[in-house]
Backbone:
C-alpha cells in the first residue's frame, strides 16, 4: 500500500498514438500523440468541448477510439475492456455507489478482485486515512458533503493500487477554498503514491499549480504542451496566451532588427521586443502577448524601454492585488495588475498614469 | 405550508373522501358484518377455513397460481424494462406503446384470445402437430398452465411500469464506474444495477401479487371450471349456492391476506419509499 513506497517511482507510462474519435461529422479527438512518463502528473487543459473527457474516457476504455492506439508500457490496450485495464478513475460528479457505505464503496474494487472484506480491512482503513475520512467509514454517500464524497471517490480509486489514476474535473463541484485545500492534498498524494496521474480540468490555475506537464487542447487537437512555467512564459499562440492566464495583445509592423531584438510600430508608437521577429506575416505584421502583471505602473514617465501613458477607465481591488483597465492613445485598452501593498499610483478613475515594460517582458505569438 | 391553505386543500379532497366513505367503506363494513352474522351470529363461517378441505384446496390453488404468476411476471417485466432502459429513444417509444397496448384491450377479449390460441384445435396445437413436433394435442388450457399464461399476460404492464420508472432514475455512470474499478459486466449488473433497481422490483412484486389474489375473469375463463380460485368461488357462493355468509367470509379473508402480505413486505422494506410517497 501507499506509504513506504515514497519516491519509488512505481508508476506506468502511457502513450497515445494518433488517437482520434469521430462523432458523426465532428472530430471530438483529432490525431492526438502524447507520452505520459512514469509517475508524472499530466493535465489535459482546454475549453469546454475541446475533447478532454473523450480522451480520458478512451484511456479508461469507455469510449472506443475511431483510430489510433493506446499503449501502456508498450502493451497495446486500445481494445481492452475497462475492467481489464486496472486504472483508477474519479468521475466528474464522483459516481459513488449510493447503496453502499463509504467502507463498502472502497472495498468494491478489492471485492471484484476476490479480496474478502476481512482481508481488505487494513487497505480500506489505510486508504480512508490517506484522505482523512477514517471517522466516516460507516456513512452512506448521501450523508456526506461534496468535499467528503470527493475524498471517498479518490480513496476508492487508489485502494487497489491502480497502474494509472484518471481524474475528470474532480474538484469542479467544490467551492474555491475547499478546492485549494484539496489541490494541495492531491499533489502530496501523488508524491506519496508515485502513481501516474492524468488529470482533466478547464481551470487554468489548477492546471498550473498541480501538473508536471500541461497539454492544452483545442478542438480535439493538442495546441501546445510543456511544463507549467514554460507554457505560461512562452505561449506559442494567441489562444494559449489567452487561455492560460490573461494577456494584452499588441499587433504591430516590424521595423529594424538588431542585437537579438527588433522594433515594431503599434498604433504609431515604436516599441522594442526581445528575440527574433518570428511568425511575422508577409505584410510585416507581428503579434506580441504582454502579461498584465509584467507592466510597471508609475505616475511619472518610467525609464523602461517601452513606455506609454493612459487613463484609468476601471479598476478592481482583490485584497492582494489591483487590476486596472487603462485606455491608451496608441495601444488601445490595456489591462495591468500590481500587488496592492506596493501600488505606486493613486487608484482612481480618470487618473493619468504611465505603463512601462522591458523588451523581454513580452513574447511573440502566432496569431491563431 | 400555511394553515389556511392546508384547509383549502382538505376541502378540495372532501368530495372524494365522502364518496369513498359512502360507496366503499360502508359496503365493506357490511360485508364484514354479514360474514359474522349469516346464517347465525358467530365465527361459524370462519371455522370453514380450517374444517373444509374444499376451501383449503381453493386457497392453495390461489396462492400457488399467484406466486408462480408473480414470479414469472416480475422476471419477464424486469427484462422488458431493462431492455427499454438500454435501447434508443425510438425503440423505447415503440416498446412502451406495445406494453400499454395490452392495457387498452378488455380483459374478456384477451382471455378469449388465449382460449382460441391454446385450446385443443387452437393455433398452437394445430401448428405444432403440422410441424410434426407432437402427435397428440397438448393440454394448454382449462388447467393452471392456461390460467398462468393469461394472468402473466395481463399483469406484465403492471410489472414493467414501476420497474422501468425506477430504472430511469439509475445513473448509467455508476455502472461505468463499477466497470472501471474492475467489475465484469455481470458483476457490475449484479452488485450495482440490480440493488439499485430493487425498489422497482419490490413495488412490481407487491402490485402483481395483490392484483392476482383477487383476479376473476382470466382464471374463470382459462381455467374452465377446473382451476377454481378464491374470487371465482366467492362468485359461485354469492350467485349460485346463495351462501352469503361463506362468500363474505372469503371476501374478508381475501382482504386480510392482502393486508397481511403488505405488512410482511413492510417488515423488510420502507413501503413509503417504494411507492414514492417519500
Ligand atoms: N457521445 C457523444 N456523441 C456525440 N458527440 C459527443 C459525444 N461525447 C462528446 N461529444 C462531443 O465531442 C466534443 C468533445 O467533448 P468532451 O466531452 O470530450 O469535451 P470536454 O473537453 O470534456 O468538455 P467539458 O469541459 O465541457 O467537460 C464535444 O463537442 C461534444 O459535444
Ligand atoms: Mg468533460
Residues:
Amino acid at each position: 500500500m501507499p506509504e513506504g513506497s515514497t519516491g519509488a517511482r512505481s508508476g506506468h507510462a502511457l502513450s497515445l498514438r494518433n488517437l482520434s474519435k469521430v462523432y458523426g461529422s465532428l472530430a471530438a479527438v483529432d490525431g492526438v500523440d502524447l507520452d505520459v512518463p512514469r509517475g508524472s502528473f499530466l493535465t489535459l487543459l482546454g475549453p469546454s468541448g475541446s475533447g478532454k473527457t473523450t480522451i480520458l474516457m478512451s484511456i479508461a476504455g469507455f469510449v472506443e477510439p475511431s483510430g489510433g492506439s493506446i499503449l501502456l508500457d508498450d502493451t497495446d490496450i486500445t481494445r481492452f475492456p475497462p475492467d481489464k485495464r486496472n486504472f483508477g478513475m474519479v468521475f466528474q460528479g464522483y459516481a459513488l455507489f449510493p447503496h453502499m457505505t463509504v467502507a463498502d464503496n472502497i472495498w468494491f474494487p478489492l471485492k471484484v478482485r476476490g479480496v474478502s472484506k476481512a482481508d481488505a480491512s487494513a487497505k480500506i482503513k489505510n486508504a480512508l486515512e490517506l484522505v482523512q475520512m477514517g471517522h466516516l467509514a460507516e456513512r452512506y454517500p448521501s450523508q456526506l458533503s461534496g468535499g467528503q464524497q470527493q475524498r471517498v471517490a479518490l480513496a476508492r480509486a487508489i485502494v487497489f493500487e491502480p497502474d494509472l489514476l484518471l481524474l475528470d474535473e474532480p474538484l469542479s463541484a467544490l467551492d474555491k477554498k475547499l478546492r485549494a485545500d484539496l489541490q494541495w492534498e492531491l499533489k502530496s498524494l501523488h508524491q506519496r503514491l508515485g502513481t501516474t496521474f492524468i488529470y482533466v480540468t478547464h481551470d487554468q490555475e489548477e492546471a498550473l499549480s498541480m501538473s508536471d506537464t500541461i497539454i492544452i487542447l483545442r478542438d480535439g487537437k493538442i495546441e501546445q504542451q510543456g511544463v507549467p512555467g514554460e507554457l505560461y512564459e512562452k505561449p506559442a499562440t494567441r489562444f494559449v496566451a489567452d487561455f492560460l492566464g490573461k494577456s494584452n495583445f499588441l499587433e504591430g509592423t516590424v521595423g529594424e532588427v538588431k542585437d537579438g531584438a527588433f522594433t515594431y510600430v503599434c498604433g504609431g508608437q515604436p516599441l522594442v521586443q526581445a528575440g527574433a521577429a518570428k511568425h511575422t506575416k508577409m505584410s510585416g505584421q507581428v503579434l506580441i502577448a504582454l502579461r498584465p502583471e509584467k507592466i510597471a505602473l508609475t505616475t511619472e514617465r518610467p525609464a523602461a524601454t517601452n513606455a506609454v501613458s493612459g487613463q484609468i477607465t476601471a479598476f478592481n481591488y482583490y485584497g492582494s492585488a489591483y487590476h486596472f483597465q487603462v485606455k491608451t492613445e496608441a495601444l488601445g485598452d490595456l489591462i495591468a495588475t500590481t500587488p496592492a501593498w506596493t501600488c505606486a499610483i493613486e487608484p482612481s478613475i480618470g487618473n493619468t498614469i504611465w505603463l512601462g515594460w522591458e523588451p523581454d517582458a513580452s513574447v511573440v505569438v502566432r496569431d491563431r | 405550508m400555511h394553515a389556511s391553505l392546508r384547509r383549502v386543500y382538505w376541502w378540495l379532497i372532501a368530495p372524494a373522501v365522502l364518496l369513498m366513505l359512502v360507496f366503499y367503506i360502508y359496503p365493506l363494513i357490511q360485508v364484514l358484518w354479514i360474514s359474522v352474522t349469516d346464517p347465525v351470529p358467530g365465527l361459524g363461517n370462519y371455522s370453514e377455513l380450517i374444517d373444509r378441505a374444499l376451501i383449503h384446496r381453493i386457497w392453495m390453488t390461489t396462492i400457488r397460481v399467484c406466486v408462480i404468476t408473480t414470479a414469472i411476471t416480475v422476471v419477464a417485466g424486469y427484462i422488458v424494462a431493462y431492455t427499454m432502459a438500454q435501447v434508443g429513444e425510438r425503440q423505447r417509444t415503440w416498446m412502451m406503446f406495445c406494453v400499454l397496448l395490452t392495457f387498452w384491450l378488455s380483459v374478456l377479449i384477451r382471455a378469449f384470445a388465449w382460449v382460441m390460441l391454446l385450446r385443443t384445435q387452437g393455433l398452437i396445437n394445430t401448428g405444432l402437430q403440422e410441424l410434426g413436433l407432437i402427435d397428440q394435442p397438448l393440454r394448454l388450457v382449462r388447467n393452471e398452465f392456461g390460467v398462468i399464461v393469461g394472468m402473466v399476460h395481463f399483469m406484465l404492464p403492471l410489472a414493467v411500469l414501476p420497474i422501468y420508472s425506477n430504472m430511469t432514475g439509475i445513473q448509467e455512470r455508476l455502472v461505468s464506474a463499477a466497470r472501471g474499478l474492475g467489475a465484469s459486466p455481470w458483476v457490475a449488473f449484479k452488485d450495482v444495477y440490480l440493488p439499485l433497481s430493487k425498489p422497482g422490483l419490490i413495488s412490481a412484486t407487491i402490485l402483481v401479487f395483490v392484483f392476482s389474489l383477487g383476479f376473476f375473469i382470466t382464471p374463470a375463463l382459462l381455467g374452465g371450471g377446473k382451476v377454481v380460485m378464491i374470487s371465482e368461488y366467492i362468485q359461485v357462493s354469492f350467485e349460485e349456492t346463495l351462501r352469503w355468509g361463506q362468500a363474505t367470509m372469503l371476501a374478508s379473508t381475501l382482504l386480510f391476506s392482502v393486508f397481511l402480505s403488505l405488512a410482511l413486505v413492510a417488515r423488510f422494506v420502507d413501503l413509503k419509499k417504494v411507492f414514492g410517497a417519500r
